[in-house]
Amino acid sequence: MATEPTFEDLFRAARHSAYHLEMRDAYVLDQDYAEWISGSRFDPAERWPWWIELVSGSVARGVDVRRARIVSEPISPYVRYEYELTSSHNIKAGESVRWLPRRETSGLALPGNDLWLFDGTSVLFNHFDGNGEMTGEELVTDPAVVELCASAFTAVWARAIPHEDYQPV
Q1: pLDDT (tens digit per residue) in 82-119
Q2: Distance (Å, whole) CA 99 – CA 156
Q3: Which domains does the chain show, CATH number per domain?
């Protein structure tokens, strides 16, 4: 019986693109977030070096790594945390990051879950409970689902504001 590839397997196998669509205003409130909200600041590259290595290695191979975040405004404290870490974490690793205020998404057909789209051929859905705790992943290669997700990501990316220009409310 073959096992499903892990997220890291999928990321390392990407040849052209790895696109992430985030649509939640909060995720699990873990120890890192608790430290940040209490005023303690840390260097994400020191805390999560594996991410810097994974993304920078992929970018060096020619993989286009993008992250689009749909956010409610005014932004939640958790999104503020993400925003403040983006330059020293995601962008430092080599990602392109854009932000789209939720009010700008009303005319878009969006999937119901956060996702990673790899090379336009597979989608890894991230499932969360109501508290933002990840409950599982679902790998889908059905061309219709992949196309729906690729179309959604493209539409969000086209409307979204580059990180360096986004001013959170």
Answers
A1: 999 999 999 999 999 999 999 999 999 999 999 999 99
A2: 9
A3: 7-165 (3.30.870.10)
